[in-house]
Design brief:
Strand content of chain A: under 5%
CATH superfamily of chain A: Amino acid/polyamine transporter I
Helix content of chain A: over 70%
Number of strands of chain A: 2
Structural class of chain A: mainly alpha
Order of helices and strands of chain A: HHHHHHHHHHHEEHHHH
Strand order of the largest sheet of chain B: 1-2-4-5-3
Order of helices and strands of chain B: HHEEHHEHEEHEEHHEHEEHHHHHHHEE
Radius of gyration of chain A: 21 Å
CATH class of chain A: Mainly Alpha
Structural class of chain B: alpha+beta
Largest sheet of chain B: 5 strands, antiparallel
Oligomer: heterodimer
Helix content of chain B: 40-55%
Shape of chain A: globular
Largest interface: A-B, 33 and 28 residues
Chain lengths: ~375, ~500
């Protein structure tokens, strides 16, 4: 195996939570608000089914092919050529997704703090820091997430608590004024974030206890759901129908905080904790990309290709979109279908093919040996 | 190379039966060693013998009374037999026979006088070394208000006694080895059998055996040779002058390495949190212990980040400062010709210089330097318009914060890391500080000390050990030992020792 390290189920969950939630906090409230209006807090609840389904898919696939990642077993499930093709599609997808992610980070930082710093420097420094973690391996990433993620989540909830006095509860009503349709429409985009839980299928082979890993995967979906609803409710109660016209509602929300004329303008703090969350997110994707590529090319170690891939991610980040508007538009429209089809439909097809193959193989085996093969 | 081989062959030789040959060889080995004394005498007026010792390393009084007097007054009937001499004549408790030149040399250089007798192929070594040593003092680098006041000294045997007196069980094991081709420094590994992990002990031994150096003068030499990550600035072993810390670590399954000639013991493995603990956390109540720990954790961040945060906020995020404060800061910075980063660098570097000067100077001049420093850094620099008053405050608080870290080796790391973070803060603002912090966290997550993750028990999380790192739980609640590996002696003390009024009725 390329990865010698093992992580605990809790570490896996702690890696997955920021891997989903980090970019959600920025863009999702306004994107969902475009369709769901003041029902935007319902959308993540409808969408979370995708998350559970995808974690279930990864667990089932892992049971069929223990100790293998999706890149490795797609060959077993679909045959050599088709399998390589599917692996390639996954890798190109993650390459693209990581590029988009770094660009989101770059756009956010340059829009919120470093107005004059070149984009390449902002993205490059982040990718460099992430590459240290990826070079350290999965164990290091797991441990780093144990230090970073609890702090990030606590500070985020603290932000919410500090905002309580500015919240207008009546913005919530009327719930489902136009029926369930708008909130369902709004749930399509969050679904694409939930579908990123397919990353679990890359991590599960290296988790000490797969069954607990499945349980903690589901818990991670719950925590993501909680944080998404919290974010959307916060945006809604604070801005009402204005939410859809803001780019970064959470960032604007932080500006509302003013306690005793001293605790104010905390957007830099928000930025700091958000950077920490994004760091984990990029690291997880970067790691999956590096490990997957090494497995796809049947290399003996993934570490030598980490830095070259980092450079490609930097280029991809610069090339991904012209500006934030284009990026946000892509994510809100065709991006959702693109992401969902690769992260949900493709693994589902994989699982179908694999189980059919297995059934056939078993029947063949039975006919040959006249004894059932126990697996 | 050939010469060295010849020497080793020579010294591995057994002693000759003729005293004449032995003396000749030893005199050639000890040529130009003015401190080695050869004292020729006759046993019972007949048998020729020689006493060899290092001047000032052996107890001369005992040599006179217990070696020379009985031997010279002996009435001989036949050839003196070594065995009989040891059993009947020599009134020294620690005594042994030696057979090779190698033995002679090593015994003599550890302060044991040697007696060689004509027509005998063996010699006698008497364990009566004595040399000047420092008396036990309170370690100045690790002072406590409440707690034992003795500290290790430069003499290995005394240090072992200090530990043996704290842990009297025969399970306390001591393994000795020599490191250093010329210094031949004695190094001992101490551990408690049944608590310390066997593989850990073997690993420590293997790493120590691999060292090939001409001399060991301080445990720092050893530390650099056996560190898991040689290029990391973080200390991966705990060094202490206090026997109570060493004893406490032994009880938690660690291995203590004592080196002759230095009061600093090495403790392995260690975690980052042990570097932030003072022995007093455990001696005073657990509530104050916990609070002081938190204070330390906060000031750890202050010592690392304060100047950088100041620079970042002044350069990039002025909106974070409350308006009234912003005005006064702006007023004080009006005269300053430098950007905040340069200002901070000037102050920090001169503070580091002052601190270093304060350590090296004789104590009576040291106070003068600190007055001059306070004037130069504080008063004069501000009134001369070189730095602003808030900057002086930031540097001062950083300085105090770095003194709050109880281990010098840990506070050195903060001093090193402060400067790159300041540069990042000056170029990328808070983003730079975050990137620096993330890099440090990732680096610390990669570190291991003898296989133990450096940030354990927080990363990876070990629930049962959190109560001795995040907080300091009461003593009666430490029911399990911290464990470095899976296979360990779990139970530290039985349940139900919490004191309560109900206990009186038992």
């Amino acid at each position: 195996m390329l990865e010698q390290g093992k992580i605990s189920p809790v570490q896996m969950a702690l890696l997955m939570i920021p891997a989903i939630i980090a970019t959600v906090l920025l863009l999702v409230p306004s994107i969902t608000a475009k369709h769901a209006h003041h029902d935007l807090w319902l959308s993540p609840i409808w969408a979370c089914g995708t998350g559970f389904f995808v974690v279930f898919l990864s667990y089932k696939l892992n049971k069929l092919f223990p100790e293998k990642t999706i890149i490795e077993y797609s060959e077993h499930a679909l045959g050599k050529i088709l399998g390589k093709l599917v692996g390639g599609i996954f890798l190109f997808f993650y390459f693209h997704a990581t590029g988009i992610m770094v660009r989101e980070y770059g756009e956010f930082v340059s829009g919120a703090a470093l107005f004059h710093t070149p984009m390449a420097v902002i993205i490059g420094t982040m990718v460099l820091v992430c590459s240290f973690a990826v070079l350290g391996g999965l164990e290091v990433m797991g441990r780093a997430s144990e230090i970073i993620v609890p702090v990030v989540i606590l500070l985020y909830i603290l932000l919410f608590i500090l905002l309580i006095k500015d919240l207008e509860v009546k913005n919530l009503f009327p719930i489902m004024e136009k029926g369930i349709r708008p909130s369902l429409m709004g749930s399509i985009v969050p679904q694409s974030w939930y579908s990123e839980f397919i990353l679990v299928s890359f991590l599960l082979p290296y988790v000490t206890n797969q069954k607990k890993g499945f349980k903690w995967g589901l818990i991670a979906v719950f925590i993501v759901l909680f944080l998404m609803v919290l974010t959307n409710i916060m945006a809604l109660l604070l801005f009402g129908n204005l939410t859809s016209s803001l780019t970064y509602p959470v960032m604007v929300a932080a500006r509302y905080i003013s306690i005793a004329d001293f605790l104010e303008h905390l957007e830099s703090i928000v930025m700091a904790i958000w950077i920490a969350g994004t760091f984990i997110k990029i690291t997880v994707f970067y790691y999956v990309l590096a490990l997957g590529t090494a497995q796809w090319l049947k290399l003996s170690d993934y570490r030598p290709i980490v830095l070259p891939i980092g450079f490609l991610i930097l280029l991809q980040g610069l090339w991904a979109a012209r500006d934030l508007q284009e990026l946000s538009h892509f994510l809100a429209t065709s991006g959702a279908i693109y992401i969902l089809s690769i992260q949900v439909v493709l693994p589902f097809i994989l699982l179908l093919c694999a189980s059919i193959r297995k059934k056939l193989g078993q029947r063949k085996g039975n006919k040959q040996n006249e004894t059932p093969v126990n697996h | 190379m050939v010469l060295v081989e010849q020497q080793t062959i020579l010294s591995k030789d057994r002693l000759s039966i003729h005293l004449h040959d032995n003396v000749k060889k030893l005199e050639s080995i000890y040529a130009d060693c003015a401190d080695i004394k050869f004292r020729y005498f006759l046993i019972g007026n007949e048998s020729k013998a020689v006493l060899i010792y290092v001047d000032g390393m052996s107890n001369v009084e005992e040599i006179d009374n217990n070696l020379l007097t009985p031997l010279m007054r002996l009435e001989l009937e036949k050839e003196p037999d070594i065995h009989a001499l040891i059993e009947n004549t020599l009134t020294v408790s620690n005594i042994k026979e030696i057979q090779t030149y190698d033995d002679v040399v090593s015994e003599v250089s550890s302060g044991n006088p040697i007696i060689l007798i004509d027509h005998q192929s063996k010699g006698i070594s008497a364990g009566i070394p004595k040399w000047e040593k420092r008396s036990l003092q309170e370690p100045t680098t690790e002072t406590v208000v409440r707690g034992p006041r003795d500290g290790f000294i430069e003499t290995l045997s005394t240090n072992i006694v200090l530990l043996r007196r704290k842990i009297r069980s025969p399970k306390l094991k001591i393994k000795s080895l020599q490191i250093g081709r010329y210094s031949q420094t004695q190094v001992v590994i101490m551990y408690i059998e049944g608590i310390a992990d066997q593989t850990l002990i073997e690993e420590v031994q293997n790493r120590l055996n691999r060292i090939d150096i001409d001399g060991i003068l301080e445990s720092g030499y050893i530390e650099e040779f056996i560190k898991d990550h040689p290029y990391s600035p973080f200390p991966l072993m705990l060094d202490t002058e206090r026997p109570d810390i060493a004893a406490a670590s032994l009880l938690e399954g660690n291995v203590v390495i004592l080196t002759d000639g230095t009061p600093f013991a090495l403790i392995a493995p260690t975690t980052f949190y042990s570097l932030l603990q003072s022995p007093e956390d455990y001696y005073e109540g657990f509530i104050i212990g916990t609070l002081i720990r938190w204070l330390r954790y906060v000031f750890l961040l202050v010592a690392l980040l304060l100047p950088s945060v100041y620079v970042a906020i002044l350069t990039y995020h002025q909106e974070m400062i409350p308006t009234t404060l912003l005005i006064s800061v702006a007023k004080s910075r009006e005269q300053i010709p430098f950007p905040a980063l340069v200002e901070a660098l000037i102050m920090e570097v001169s503070f580091e210089a002052l601190r270093e000067a304060g350590i090296r100077l004789p104590k009576n001049i040291g106070s003068a330097v600190s007055i001059v420093g306070a004037l130069v850094i504080g008063q004069a620099a501000v009134s001369a318009g070189l730095v602003s008053a808030p900057m002086v405050m930031a540097v001062a608080i950083t300085g105090i914060a770095s003194f709050l870290i109880p281990r010098y080796s840990a506070s050195i790391v903060l001093r090193i890391l402060r400067f790159p973070i300041m540069f990042l803060a000056g170029t990328l603002g808070l983003v730079g500080i975050m990137l620096a912090l993330l890099t440090i966290i990732v680096h610390m997550c990669t570190l291991r000390s003898f296989g133990v993750p450096y940030l354990q028990p927080l990363a990876p999380i070990r629930n049962s050990e959190l109560k001795d790192s995040i907080i300091r739980a009461p003593w009666w609640s430490f029911k399990k030992r911290p464990h470095w590996t899976d296979d360990y002696n779990k139970v530290r003390q039985p349940n139900g020792q919490q004191p309560s009024p109900l206990k009186g009725k038992e």
